[in-house]
Design goal:
- The complex is a heterodimer of chains A (117) and B (207).
- Chain A contains 4 helices and 5 strands.
- Chain A is an alpha/beta fold and 117 residues long.
- In chain A, helix 1 packs parallel to helix 2.
- Chain A is globular and about 35 Å long.
- Chain B has 207 residues and is α+β, with helices and mostly antiparallel strands.
- Classes of the chains: A alpha/beta (117), B alpha+beta (207).
Chain lengths: 117, 207
Amino acid sequence: MSADELRVVVETTDDGVVVIRVRGSLDGWTGPSGLVEALEKAAEDGGRLTVADLSRLEFADSTGLHALLNAQRRHTEAGVRLVLAGPLGTGVRRLFEVSGTLGAFSFADTVDAALTC
Amino acid sequence: MNGEREVLHDGVSPADGPEEAAATPAPTAPSDEGAEEPTVTRTDLPQAPADESGPQRPSDENDPGSPAGGGGPQRPSDENDAPEVPQNAAAARAVVTRLLEAWSHGRSGEGPAEVVLADALLVTSELVTNAVRHGGGLTGFTAEITEEGLLLTVADASPEAPVVTERDPATAPIGGYGWPLVRRLTEWVSVRHHLGGKNVVALIALV
């Protein structure tokens, strides 16, 4: 696969945790295909925690931000926690910083940290 | 290094482009105004070979004006030696990455500061994506280093000005983030109309 593509892998545990691992690039040209659906399903299924693993996300632009904000809202409505797990690459971190949306999400340094917090 | 560009974290502050906030384009763009020739030089393109031009295209769009997969789509009335139009946003980002790396190595022997590169790639991605999603197709892309910084010129096939909806990201939610990000990360953005569409020109400070 090329780093340009978006790859989304979903892992579900018995105890109501969904881990969505995101790799590659998430931009408006290619679209957030796969991620939106995975996040939506996680919210709908009503588990206790969704972890979006962004540690291998190499790039994201406002389309990615849009998808994540939307997912955050849907999770809140559904009463499911959503945690974004790093460590974040510089580009992804900047997206949250520059857009002023750091406060809109719960972040964890790693997936493991997200699972235990 | 990147001193004066710390305009982060504050909400949507429309006036963060220092001097010429010519950014916000007029709501309706006169498409037929006489002087359609952009004043910005579009020469000297850092045309790096688009080697990894993966044939990916926006999967969910049937935009009539989208650049056709293969060769160079129709360009507006500019030069003929214009660089190849990137086939997707990743290809445009790759052009900018190579340009900044070459520039930075030539200057300091090191790669570009991560934040500078990240910001430049974000602006690039937003602008070319906008051209495809709302501008009738990407018809040209150039990136060049000038004395003032990184100058990006993104041409699309629509004479319509970019749709600008600025919202407070903290409260209201969805959509319209791209343009505010571009505004925040650039010194200025201008929109220049010509017969076949428009050029969106953005300057990103590098030091």
